[in-house]
Write a structure and sequence with these properties.
This protein is of the alpha/beta class and 493 residues long. Helices cover 13% and strands 25% of the residues. Strands 1, 2, 3, 4, 5, 6 and 7 form a 7-stranded mixed β-sheet that branches. Strands 16, 18, 20, 21, 23 and 24 form a 6-stranded mixed β-sheet that branches. Bound molecules: zinc ion.
Length: 493
Amino acid sequence: MMSMTLGVQGQALDGGCGTPPAPPQNLQWIENLMAQQNVWGIETNDTLIRVPIKAHFVTDINGRTFSHKDLLDVVCELNAKYKPANIYFYLRPNINIIRMPVYNPLANFAAGNQLMLDNNINRAVNVHFTNLGQMGLCGYATYPGSGPGSTMRQGGMVMGTNGNCSSPGNTTFAHEMGHYLSLPHPFDETENDPDNAATAERVTRNNNEVLPRLRANCATAGDRFCDTPADFIGTRWNCAGPVPTQLDINGDQFQPDPTLYMSYSLDFCQNRFSPSQITAMRATIPGLRGYLLQPTMPTLDSVKVAPAMIQPVQNDTNVVSNFAFFKWQSVPGATHYCIQIARSANFSDAIVDTFVTDTQFLYTANRMVPNATYRWRVKAFNWQYTCAPISASWTFRSGAPFGVQASQLSADEVELFPSVVEAGAPIRVRFTEPSAQSFQLSILDLHGKLVKSFSSNPADQEGTVSLDGMNSGMYLVQITREGRSMNKKIIVR
Ligand SMILES: [Zn+2]
């Protein structure tokens, strides 16, 4: 499936679905299931089925991955879309960061197979987020019993981080999950030759048509579901324009259903699975993918509110650009928080986008520009509840970085220990090589304030620095000798 070429306003067209037509054994399985349903009226939507997702983020050559915050949002959206099916997805901790840019962008399906073989875990829907732009795709999935690997970790999904494929507000995730849970495209076996008597699904649902008209074949053609209309469109199409039409072998007009997640209508057209599709997905989980049900989902409290922000205060200024401390209040039920720091209002250029278990975050990297306006926000969650609203965005102004030298000391050249110090105890510094010069220590608190400085005698190779009078907490220590420096964090208990 290549990218669509029709231009449509208001929607990025980032590529299609790369899932191949369903294997014959899957189509046969659906036929058997639907035949039983017709005989016995199987309807088992009353019990909630819980399904674990393992998210894998592949880094690109710049170390970037899919957004942690967007993952929370798209799992929340996935659950809204699967609510009528009474299927609930939760995350298996933690996100697996795969530092292999050779798989980002992904070159081909063979590389995707290797990615799954090397990284899939047992008993979860393995979802790999990487750039599929080179393949012209937004996502693809494997059917039960197919794909790389063995039973409990076989196959999975690859979701494109290109364009908006995996962004909140899109439907590719729900569509590919449908494939993973056995659903074919409604245009399967029909799009290539819509009036083929042998293979194409006919529009009619009448089993008693009179020749020369051919009778209904919806149970044995197309996606095998009789409650999804015959569909002949295997390229992305826009439901907002005139619906494309074609005639089947009986001369009946095809009216493909744009509301189905499994169709190729544009994302905004889609909003449902049919009852038979739901039956098939619900039968797949305890059946063909029964290994997903063990171990059962642990019980966690729901997370419903956004954290109250504490520091830096709204419109704070002079936040040290390489030693910035962020703090917020805990939220009931939350075991984790997602913090984002960015310059743009939509956080698309986030310099921090990560999960932490604490209600604070210390930024010590060097991607924050001095004298610039930044925003930060926090979302509370646990691995089962990802739908709580995100906090307001608070703004701050970055100040000068602390003690940045042109040349950095390496960890081989100097040691600072211990990194966790009892209150009142000293810290020690030791250089591995002698020098005729003295060395200096500066200690900053989390507000960027200098709380202690120390200078050694010339030619000292080591020294002991008293921390008398310092409160418990986290501090930044800068060690400088001969114009070269190194920053280290310490904790005073
Ligand atoms: Zn598809």
